[in-house]
Write a structure and sequence with these properties.
Elements (H helix, E strand, L loop, with lengths): L23 H7 L8 H7 L7 H6 L16 E2 L8 H10 L5 H16 L4 E4 L4 E5 L3 H26 L6 H5 L1
Antiparallel strand pairs: 1-2, 2-3
Helix pairs in contact: 2-4, 5-6
């Protein structure tokens, strides 16, 4: 006896969920996590792409602090605060980031927290009461990567600055 060959399943059409059968909470869970960092934030806080290496090394970035908070304390069910971009820029420049490992763990946990109703993130490591949009996670990750690059380039600059005058590496920096 020959085993039956399974037939392929028909293609499923992707469409919006029928909202007349879903409550608002279910519809919100279907919405994609907002992770796009607004251009106004990128333009004000991120180093410009054409910035020279020496200016990048000195470019002011938010600090990073080590903290021992439960990751769940970063997530909040409330929507993000409505804040003017100019006020948000000032806050993001002043508030320190969580450590890179905390940022990584939060990023891994974010999809399930979004599905379970979290709609904003907080800075519990600073006791700041504001709720920020979910795009704060990619913002933290990018700033953390910039800080890591700055650290590495500062080490290179420090090494080159100790070479004797006229040394080849100093001339190329």
């Amino acid at each position: 006896m020959v085993a039956p060959v399974p037939r392929p399943l028909p293609a499923l059409e992707v469409s919006d969920p029928p909202t007349e059968f879903l409550d608002q909470t279910t519809v919100m869970k279907c919405v994609e996590i907002p992770t796009a960092i607004p251009a106004a934030i990128r333009d004000k806080i991120f180093p410009p792409e054409q910035l020279s290496l020496t200016k990048f090394i000195d470019f002011p970035l938010p600090l990073c602090i080590l903290s021992q908070h439960n990751l769940d304390k970063y997530f909040a069910p409330l929507p993000p605060d409505t804040t003017l971009i100019s006020d948000l820029v000032v806050a993001l420049e002043m508030l320190p980031l969580p450590s890179p490992i905390v940022i990584h763990r939060l990023s891994c946990q974010a999809p399930s927290m979004w599905t379970n109703g979290s709609r904003s993130l907080m800075y519990p490591h600073t006791n700041d009461p504001r709720q920020f949009p979910f795009w704060i996670l990619p913002f933290w990750r990018v700033i953390s990567e910039f800080r890591s690059s700055q650290f590495s380039w500062r080490a290179v600059e420090g090494y080159l600055s100790h070479l004797p005058p006229g040394h080849y590496e100093v001339a190329t920096f």
